[in-house]
Structure formats: C-alpha cells, structure tokens
Amino acid sequence: MKLKSNALNQAIKFALATTTAGLFISGSAIAADEQEQTKVNKNVEKIAVVGTRSAPRSIGDSPVPIDIIGGEELEKSGNTDMLELLKGAVPSFNVHQNPISDAASLVRPANLRGLPSDSTLVLLNGKRRHRASVIAFLGGGINDGAQGADISVIPSIAIKQVEVLRDGAAAQYGSDAIAGVMNFQLKDASEGGKLEIRHGQFYEGDGDTTQVSGNVGLPFTDNGFANLSFQYKTADATSRSVQRADAAALSAAGVPDVSSLAQVWGAPEVDDDITIFGNVGLELTNDSEFYMFGNYSERDVRGGFYYRNPQTRSGVYSNDGGETLLVADTTPDMSANCPTITITDGNVLDDPAYINGVANNPDCFAFNEMLPGGFTPNFGGNITDTSLTIGTKGRFTGGFLKDTYYDLSGTVGLNESRYFIYDTVNASLGADTPRDFSPGKYEQLEKNFNFDLSKGIDFGLAYDVNIAGGFEWHEETFTIVSGDEASYTAGPLTEQGFGIGSNGFPGFKPSQAGEFSRRNYAAYVDVEAPFTEDFLMGVALRFEDYDSFGTTTNYKVMAQYHLTEDLNVRGSVSSGFRAPTVGQANVSNVQTSLDGGVLQDSALLPPTNPIAVQLGGTELEPEESQSYTLGAVYTIGELFLTLDYYNIQVDDRISQSDKINLSQADKDTLAAAGVPNVQGLAQVSFFTNDFDTTTQGIDLVANYTAELMGGSSTFSLAYNWNDTEVTKFSEITGAFKVKRLEEDLPNHRATFTLSQQWESVSAFARANYYGEYQGVHVDYDATAKTADAAVTIDAEVTYFLNESVSFSVGAQNLFDQDAEKLDFADATGIPNNNWGGQFYETSPFGINGGFYYAKATYTF
User: Signal peptide span per the entry (predicted)?
Assistant: First the structure.
C-alpha cells in the first residue's frame, strides 16, 4: 500500500526531531494529537528500517534525495576511517589520500557531488558541526584552500545512521550547504552494547592498523538513556615509493648518508587516535525532554615531506640552483674570506676547494658538513577535537503556542591543530640549529545557539500545513598561536643568504598570531503544504546577517507528486551561499611545494595584505549558488529505484590563487612587513573569489531484496555521473588549476553490493567502479594524463559463533588493483622516479593497494 506523501513526511520529521531538530525540510518537530501520533509512530518504524542491510537506503517519498546508511552497513568494511566508509557507500562522495600535502595530510578534505569539503554542511544529531582548524594549503585540486569539518573523528560504532541529503539546503541550514548535508545520528539505546577488535595490513606488508572500539547503552534514571562510545586506533605509515633519481646519483657519486628511500609517498603514521562520544536523553515531563551529546577526540599524525638535495636546496645548500655551494663565514667580523665553491660533479665533498676551504676551515661552514646526504623533513601534528551540545525540546501545552513544538539548544565546538616538523633545520642558525620544531597551532572555535518552532495548522487541505520558523546565532573564531622561537627566528647567518625558520614549514611569528572572529545571526521560515494526498509542496526562506560582509537571503522550493501507486516525481529549486571562513580571510603561511617540478618556497598571504592587493587580491565575499534537482522514485514489490538529476551553479568560488612570481620590489615590501625568508621566496598566493562553476550530475540508486541461496539476499546498485565546468576564471586562477577542477575526479562512479544472510553466516561483496580521471603528480602540469578506469572489489565474511560472539575476515581492494602508474621521465630520461613516487596521487581509490583484516565482535 502506498504511504501518502504528507503522512510519510510527518513521520520523517518526527523521526529526525527525536535526534534534535532533524535533517529533513524544516528541522523541527511537528504537532499532532495522540491519534495522529500513533499513526506517525507506525510510519517511523517503517522509516527506521531504511538503511539496514535488508532494506533500501533512500527515502522514497521525499521531495529531495536522501540516502540513509545504517551503522551496521558502515561497519561492514575493512576501512576504519569514516571518510573511507562513506566513500564506499555514497558514489558522489570522494576523498583522496593526500601524501605530502602539508596540513591536508592531517585532516583529509572530501568532496560531495564534485564540490569542496566546505560546501557540504555536517550535522551531528541535527546540529551544526564545527569546522576543522586545518586549511588545505596544498594539492592544487578541488579542495585547495578548503576548510571543512573533520569527519574522520566520528567512529562508526557510535553511529545509528548517516543521512546524506543530496540537495542544496542553505535556505534551511545556512552557510556551507551548497552541495548537500550529512547528518550523523548517534546511537540512543539505553541498554546493550558492543565491543570490537580489528586488525589488518596492506598486501605490501605495511600500514598495520589496530582498532579497539566499544559502545554501551545505559539507563539514565527510569526515563532516559546514556549511550557511550569509544574508539582507539593506531596505523603505521605506508610507502609506495622508489628512490629519487637525484638521490640515486648522489649515492653513486659516493655522497654518504643518502637514504635508500629519500622521499616517501604513502599514508602517514597515525598514533594514539582516541575518540569518545556520548549521547544523553532524559524525559522531563510527558511533553518535554532534555538532551546532551558531544565528543573528545585526539590523534598524532606524522608523514613524509620533500627531500632536500645537498647540492641544490635553496637557503640551505645553494642559492643559485646548484652552481655554487652556500658557505657561511662564522667569524664575528666576517674575516674568514670563505671561498666560493663551484659544484662541478655529483659529490662536492671530494672537491679540494671544499675540503681545504670548508671542511678543514673552522671559520667557514656549510650544511654539507652536518648533513652531507641532504635531509627529508617529516611533517606532523596533534589534532584535538571537542564538542558539546545541550538542549531541550518538547511541546507547549497551553496558551497561544499550544501544540507547538519547540527545540532550544546551544553548541560549542573546538578543533586544534598543533603542528610539528621533524628532521629539518633552521638554516639561519647554522650548526646550532635544532632538528625538531613546533611551528605553532591553529584553533577553530564555534558557538551556536538555536531556537526552532513548528506547528501543524488545518487549512482544509489533505493534511495539516506545517509551518516552522527559527532563529540561529553563530560565532566563529580562528586563532593562530605562535611557534617555538627557533621555528621562526632569524639567526646570525640570515644576512649571508641562509633561510629563516624551520625549513619546510616556518613557525608562526608572534606578529602573525592572534584571534579573528565573526558573528552572524539568522532567521528562517518554511511551509509544507499537502495540497492533495498525492501532491506536496514546500517553501523555505532564510535571512542571514554577518558582521563582516552583510546580509544574504536564500530560498528553496520543492515538490513531490505521486503519478501512480508505484511512481512519484520530485524536484527542487534553491539558492545558496557559503561564507568565507575566518581562517581563509586571515591566515598566512609559508609553504614548500613543487612548481614546474622545482621545489620552491611560496607565501600564502591574507587577501587584504598590500602585496596581495597589488597582485589582484580583494576582501573575500560569500560564494553564491543556484541549484535545481529533478528526480523520480519507482517502487514495485521488493525493487526500489530512484533517479535524480542535479545542477549546481556556484559564482565567486573561493580558492587559493595560482602562485604568482615575485619581483624584487615585492620582496622588499614583504620583508618590511616581517614575512620570513623573503629573498628565498619565489612566489605568493592568496584566497580569492575568482571563478564560477557549473556542476551537474545524475544519481541512480536501486535496491532489491529476495530470498535466495537458502537465505536473505540484498542487491544494491548506486551510480553517480558528475561533471564540473569552470565557466569563468582569470589569470589569478590559472589554466592548469581550471583543468584540475574539471578533470581530477572521475566523471563516473558506481558501486554494486551483494549482501547475504544465513542463520550463522553472513557475507557481502562490493564492486567499486571508478571512471577515467586526470592523473596528476606533485601538482605539475607536465605529469598530467588521463588515467584509466578501474574496478576494485571489497568482501567480508562473518561467522556467528552464538548470539553474542562473531568473527569476520575481509579485504578492501581484494585483488590488489594498482593505481595508475607514473609514466613520465625525469631530466635523465629515467621513468617514474622524478620525485620518488610510483603512482599518480589523484587516484580515487588511493595508492596503497589491497588491505586485509580480521575482526572479533562481542555483542551484549
């Protein structure tokens, strides 16, 4: 029997309201009498089944596309990172592994429907989740400059279900909801629990990962619950590298202490990754309840960086590309008359001029004495994430607001990233330099206050018209904390051309440190009108006022119509926006990256910095979007099918500009402003509203359940076609950056999953298809090529020893499908080892290959 549209929509809203104001449409509970409430509760049960292993994942009677992925489905994977779990479940969701990508290696940004990570709003129990403090400075692709939420801190064992709203929703939730919304609902059981131990490694024999996780539901008095979850994880680093050509040549020439693998491309080491989530609810009266939830998470991450060649690295070994050695006069009066050492072969240490003039001369110094084989810094950080939400919700029982539902809450969230760089030098300090540094810390603090009201009113239509409204206040603070003195100080060798600060990631100076805040408030209203039993229409309007750039008003119109008992059509039209983050508007940093295949230092400046303004920078404005979707849902028997087309036009997109070469006059101005290593800087960049895009695509979801093979079988197919076109850009963006935005992600992605359940055994297998994409290495246009499509297979088998104990074995990328191999040559004509890599780092399924694991679970 068909579920009538308004009844189901009310059921959806009631279900989501029980997890604080819900994802769907109005974000607040509905009014109903006891008889209607009973009807709603029956429908809630039907909806709650969606997302389990034996039922469809998408809500069929929604006017906008929503996927629901159950917690058990998320846990069926060899992956232990929430980002990877979602990538396997939602084809329009992509995430890269980002080897050697500065802070993006610590908090990996993700993409929904081809847009950057900060274009997707993340909710926890229906409440806005704070951003990470990490801004993705390197990468050159879609997420270059993005500052999204850190999804990886959320453990799958704490999750009841994940709801993915694949539609623009800024009129309902405000900034960031251009691509869609992801709502993570925490478990809320008051009894029972689970303990799980998992261990695995990659087929290559590295990346050993151990995870212990648990969940327990406890009664909180007779009228409430306290559901607690934890996860502890460690993961070793991986390497998919070969020796660099220049390092191999140095070794062959007899240079000592050259590492056998000078530069490593792979996943970073993750140590002491611990996270705790709590979810508490308490019924205060028959018509009101209290809720509280939050988390504490911390992890240490350490990964590779670029190799410093002992004959060419600027600011340390040479300042003219390797023609002469950089030699320091260490006498107080500069009287040593240190020689000019011309580098004529592959081992300057054998040169008599070096031996006599430097090695045996106590008044002259070169870093070849201290680090003859060069060095490779390690970059890492300590990431801490905390949040707390407290609120109350219920129904007014008298007065003007009788039978109106309310939800009042406050949220605070803090993410801190303290950076470390190891095995490097502050060259300006000479032989007295430390080797390890703490360059400083970024903090992202957000506070939210929400008050929502919702009431059903009889206007003589098929069902009550639901009218909702609300108010939100939001404060965002980005803090830069200065590093240890050695990480930024200008030592005694500065005037002789030696680089200032910890090489690779100079520390934040006290003059750069500070707090940068912004406040905004919003008011919204939305109306859902069931004109007939088969036709539902909704309208939402939201006004926001920011103390930085002013006001914005956004709308959304959506509708759904049942053509037959089995077929309905749906669609929406909406506007949206994404406010520039406070971090993007104020951060400054010095990066070491490859440009044109050459390792160079470049400065990221605030867009209002005088040099940035001189080069085209302006104060950041919000991105603006227009989007529409059109889809259909077909249900017959056990077959469930949805097909949705989307089109998202984003104007004034915010990203990091192309790196712009500096003139000497520019360098003099920067030096006067206190920017470190100015003479060693080749380029600068800044955040800018510099291009427009149109992203369109198709999402297809199909599910079928049957009794086969002596058990219960579920077949699931999900397919996404996504295409992005940059419709306007300037020279500040750069042609290769445009190409990366359009081509780095595969246009076609699909998953096909078979789940099988018998009495004591369950199994699943998933085929993942990745279409052609642009292979890029080290952000260098000469490396770009069209990489081939590929298929990977995931599989898991579980044996249930009894009702409480089960054992699982499985594999991710079962047949060890390799990423696309590098096939360009370096200056010597030797392929594949220009910078030590084997595979294109833009591979949509990573570069590490197959991963196998075993898992034991105790349920009580």
Answer: 1-31
- Cβ count within 10 A of residue 115: 26
860 burial type by CB count under 10 A (0-12 exposed, 13-18 middle, 19+ buried): exposed
Residue 851 and residue 812 in contact, taking contact as beta carbons nearer than 8 Å: yes
In the chain, what is the straight-line distance between the N-terminal and C-terminal CA atoms, in Å? 36
pTM: 0.89
Positive or negative CA dihedral for 736, 742, 745, 747? negative
Give the separation between CA 494 and CA 488, rounded to whole angstroms: 12
Task: List pLDDT tens digits, range 672-685.
Answer: 776 656 666 677 88
pLDDT band at 34 (very low <50, low <70, confident <90, very high): very low
Query: Given phi > 0 = left and psi -120 to 50 = alpha, else beta, which region is 510?
Result: alpha
The CA radius of gyration of the chain, in Å to the nearest whole number, is 28
DSSP tag of 815: T
- In this structure, the strands spanning 180-186 and 120-124 are parallel
- Band (pLDDT 50/70/90 cuts) for residue 17 is very low
Which residues, in sequence order, are bridge partners of residue 93?
112
C-beta neighbour count of 140 within 10 angstroms: 26
Judge whether residue 267 has pLDDT over 70: yes
Which domains does the chain carry?
45-310+374-859 (2.40.170.20), 324-369 (no CATH)
| Range with lowest mean pLDDT among 82-96, 460-474, 529-543 | 82-96
Distance of alpha carbon 359 from alpha carbon 369, whole angstroms:
7
């427009």: which residue's tokens? 692
Task: Match 């971090």 to its residue by tokens.
Answer: 583
Contact between 330 and 293 under an 8 Å Cβ cutoff? The reply is no
Question: Of all residues in the chain, what percent are helix, strand and coil, respectively (each to 5)?
Answer: 15, 45, 40
Say if CB 215 and CB 805 are below 8 A apart.
no
Residues shown for the chain? 860
